[in-house]
Structure formats: C-alpha cells, structure tokens
Design a protein that fits this description.
18% strand; alpha/beta; 8 helices; two-stranded antiparallel sheet; single chain; eight-stranded parallel β-sheet; TIM Barrel; 229 residues
C-alpha cells in the first residue's frame, strides 16, 4: 500500500514537509501514552494539508475495535496500524478496513509466531494487508528507535510470505538504503529517525531519508537481497 512512511506526525507543517519530500504515507498516532499522540481535531488539521493520494495510517495500541473503527471512519484513514498485542479476532472485528500488524521479532521463533498468527488470520478471513517488523522493546509499546534484525526481515521476504513486509526500527537517512539492499524490503517506516525532538520532524532530515529510501528501493525492486555480511 505504500513504500515510504513517516510516522508520528503531530503538526500540519510536518505533514507538508513529508508530502514535499515525496513520501507516500504518513502515520497518525492515537496511542495515549506516546509522546506523538494526537487527538481527532489535530488529525483533521494534519490531513487537510495532505495532497490527494497520500496514504493516511492511524496507529493504535490495544484499543477497542469500536474505537478504532470510529476513528478510521471519522478521519477517512486508508490503513489501520496495530502496534500492540492485538489478536486476530480484533482484525476480524475491523471488517473490510485494511490493517497493518506490527511485530517485534528477536529471533527465528518470532518469525514462526508471525506465521502462526497469519494462519489464524487466513482461516478467519482477516488477513492484514502488511506486516511491520520492529525491534524488540524491554517494556511498553510504540516505536523502539532501535535497529530491527535485518536478517529476520530478509528471511521473511525470501520465504515469499504474504503479506508485504514493512521494515521499521531505527531507520535513518544514513542506514535506510543499506537496510533495503540487505533485506529486499520494498516498504520502510520511520518516526524518530527524522525528528529534532519527539513529535517534531526536521524537514531536511525528512528529505534526506526519503531520497535515500527511494534510492534503496530502486535497487530492491531490480535485485535480490544481498547475502548476509
């Protein structure tokens, strides 16, 4: 659904900067304990600055399905990002609203957990559109700001697993092209990697990240993932 997403947008100015840089998706955070949380009024103001076609993603953590659906429908979100412990039953409760499920994977057992989760989703007819791979956290939820295990992302992709994988976790302009080349990922997501402080994006850093990501994506779409270094 997208290739480059900038998450945790809290200001209309930052939304304009993301669009100008050429990213194709923004993330709006509705997790109350996040430093990037916004309310519906702020979300509307941000969305009003977006060009047509920009994908609007709403991030939720263990929120009730009714709340997620209400927010999604009120704002006209294009994708729901589930970044907590949500079970497949919650995806089923979203109906036809598209979802992306985040997983924190620390080892091969994490890939098996994703496979088990997706099998349940397949049986229940509630398969997420995308899977986001993030780095583990000792506690809490939300983005880690730490590097995910790129070898596990590569394994997921090389195994031909649907849905499409989104690579996140510690991505910056300095490492995103390398991450894409080494994993074969065709979608990336960052929040803290383009910030001057939590929730405040830096336009120059956004531009550098998007440029580097697109350079890496051009390679990934034409070449297989690089072998482990």
């Amino acid at each position: 659904m997208f290739t480059v997403k900038i998450c945790g947008i809290t200001r209309p100015d930052d939304a304009r900067a993301v669009a100008a840089a050429g990213a194709d998706a923004i993330g709006l955070n509705f997790y109350p304990q996040s430093p990037r949380v916004i309310d519906l009024d702020r979300a509307r103001a941000i969305i009003a600055e977006l060009p047509a076609g920009m994908i609007k993603v709403g991030l939720f953590v263990n929120a009730p399905s009714a709340e997620i659906c209400r927010t999604c429908d009120t704002l006209g979100l294009d994708l729901i990002q589930l970044h907590g412990d949500e079970r497949p039953e919650l995806l089923a409760a979203l109906g036809k609203r598209p979802a992306m499920k985040a997983f924190r994977v620390a080892g091969p057992e994490g890939l098996q957990a994703i496979a088990n989760y997706l099998e349940i989703c397949r049986v229940r007819g509630c398969m997420p559109r995308m899977i986001l791979l993030d780095a583990p956290l000792a506690r809490g939820f939300g983005g880690s700001g730490k590097l995910a295990d790129w070898s596990l992302a590569r394994q997921y992709i090389q195994n031909g697993n649907p849905p499409m994988l989104v690579l996140a976790g510690g991505l910056k302009a300095e490492n995103v092209a390398k991450a894409i080349r080494e994993t074969g990922a065709t979608a990336v997501d960052t929040a803290s990697g383009v910030e001057s402080q939590p929730g405040i994006k830096d336009p120059a850093t956004i531009r550098a990240f998007v440029l580097a990501a697109k350079q890496g994506l051009g390679y990934a779409l034409s070449c297989p993932p690089a072998p482990p270094s």
